Amino acid sequence: MPKPARIPDVLAAVDLGSNSFHMVVGRHSHGQITIVDRLREMVRLAAGLDEHGRLSKEATDRALAALARFGQRLRDMRAESVRVVGTNTLRKARRKGAFLERARETLGHPIEIISGIEEARLIYAGVTQTMPLEPGRRLVVDIGGGSTECIIGDGYEPRILESLYMGCVALSAEHFPDGRIAAKRIERAIVACEVELEPIQVPFRGVGWEHAVGSSGSVRAVAEAIRELDPAATEITREGLTELTQHLIKAGNVRSAGIASITEERWPVFTGGLAILTAVFNALGIESMRVADGALREGLLYDMVGRLTDEDARVRSVRSMSERFHVDTEQSARVEATVVDFLRQVETAWSLTDPLAEASLRWAAHLHEIGFDISHSSHHKHAAYLLEHADLPGFPREEQRLLACLVGCQRRKVALDRAEELMPPWDGKALFLIVLVRLAVLLHRGRSRVALPPIRLAAKGQSLELRLPRGWLGEHALTRADLVQEVEFLKSVRFRLRVY
C-alpha cells in the first residue's frame, strides 16, 4: 500500500442529512481534532422527496442555497482535506445525478453517498472520539431526518450496527402533518416505530450494553426540552419522556407548549423525533441515556485522519474480504504490483492522478478472485455482485460501485453499462482503469512465480500500446493467444490495444 500521507492541519466534514445539512471544520494536532467552526442549515431534504423518489425543485433549491454558503468556507481547502457525504434521502432519491453534479460544482468537492451501515459506523466513531472512554459496552442511538442508526460497541470498535428506515421528518409528516398532537396520534407513531425496531430487539438485547448514548439534533432537542421541564434532569429517562409527551398532548402542538429550547425550525419534526426515541427506549429496554456532542460529521473527521495514516477502514475491509473468501494472496500481490506499475506509466496521459485511481486498482487486485468461493464459472460476476452489495466499512457507495465495476469487468466481454452508471469523473475514466486491471490479470493468468519481464505502455486517448521484450511472446503462446483475444474484446468498446 502507498505510504501514509501527511495529515492536513485543517479538515472539514459536511453531512448532507435528511433534515439538516451540517459542516464542521477541525484543526488536527497530535492525533486530536479541535473543532474550530460549525455551520448548520435546516434544509428538510426528506420533506421534498415525493412518492416516486424524486426531489422537488423547492427542496433542491434549499439544498443548493445552503451548499453555496458552505462552499464559501471550503473554497480554499484542498480535496484531501474535505469529505462530503449524503445519507438516507440521497440514498433513496432517484435520478439524483444532475443534483449531485450541481451540488459538487457549488461546493467545489464531490459528494459520497454512504450506506446506512457506513453511516452507523461513522456515527459511532464520532461519538466515541468525543466522549471519555469507560469500561463496558456502549449503545449509541442516532435519530436523523430519514433514518435511525443503532450501534453497540466496545471502546472504539463497533460490534453490531443497524440502520432503520424511520426518521423524524418522514414520521412527523405521516403522523403529525398539521402539527396537532393527540394521545392516539402519539401512540400510533410509537407503535409504527416499534414495528421497525422489532427485528433488532433480540440481537441487541442479547449482546447487551452498560451505557446508552444518544446523538443528533433530535436527541439533543428532546434532552433540552426535558431539562427545561425539570431543571434537575441530567439525562434522558423514561419518566422524562413521559412527562414531555404529556406536556405536548396537553398543549395540543409544539408551538403552544411554551418550551423555549425547541426552536421554531424544529417544530415540524420534533414530535416525530420524540416518538422514535420513546419507541427505542421501549423496544430496547433503556432506562436512561446521555447525550453525546459528536455524531456523523465528527466521525468523518476522524475517519479522514485514519485514511491518511495506516488505519484506513477501507483497507481493513479489503483485508477482511480477502480473508473471508480465501484469496490467494501471492497471486493478488503479483497482480497488484503489475497494475500499479502500469498506472505509473499512463496516469498522466489518462489523467488518473486522483488517489482513488491507485487505491481502487490495488483493492481490485486484492479482491478480483473472491468469486472463486462461489463458482469458477463467471467468478468475476459473482465477485462484482458481492462487492456491490456487501457492507464494506469505510466505503462510500460510489467507491464500492467503482470497485465492483473494475472486478466485474476483469475478463471476457467488457460490460461498460456498469461504468456508465458511475458518477463523474469515474463514468468517463473507469474504462482506463478496467483496461489496466484486465491486462494485469491476463498477464498473471498462469499464476507463475517467475517475474514478468519489463513491460512498457504508451497511452493516448482510447488507445494503448503494450511493448514486451523481443521474443517473449513467442515463448509464451498462451499469453499471446489471450492478448490477441483481448484486442478483440476491447475493440468492441471502441478501445484500441496494440501489442508489440
Set down the secondary structure blueprint.
Blueprint: E1 10-16, E2 20-29, E3 32-42, H1 57-74, E4 82-86, H2 88-92, H3 97-107, E5 112-113, H4 116-129, E6 137-143, E7 148-154, E8 157-164, H5 168-175, H6 183-207, E9 211-215, H7 217-229, E10 236-237, H8 238-251, H9 267-284, E11 288-291, H10 296-307, H11 313-324, H12 329-346, H13 355-367, H14 379-389, H15 397-408, H16 416-420, H17 426-443, E12 456-459, E13 463-467, H18 472-475, H19 477-491, E14 496-499
Parallel strand pairs: 1-4, 4-5, 6-9, 9-11, 13-14
Antiparallel strand pairs: 1-2, 2-3, 6-7, 7-8, 10-11, 12-13
Helix pairs in contact: 1-3, 4-10, 5-9, 6-9, 7-8, 7-9, 12-13, 12-17, 13-15, 13-17, 14-15, 15-17, 17-19
Q: What would CATH call the architecture of the largest domain?
A: Orthogonal Bundle
Largest sheet: 6 strands, mixed
- Uncertain segments are none
Q: Fraction of residues in helices?
A: 40-55%
Tell me the CATH topology of the largest domain: Hypothetical protein af1432
What best-fitting shape do the alpha-carbon axes yield? elongated
What strand order characterises the main sheet?
A: 8-7-6-9-11-10
Fourth-level CATH superfamily of the largest domain:
Hypothetical protein af1432
Count of DSSP E strands?
14
Number of domains: 3
Query: Approximately what portion of the residues adopt beta-strand conformation?
Result: 15-25%
Q: What CATH first level of the largest domain would be assigned?
A: Mainly Alpha
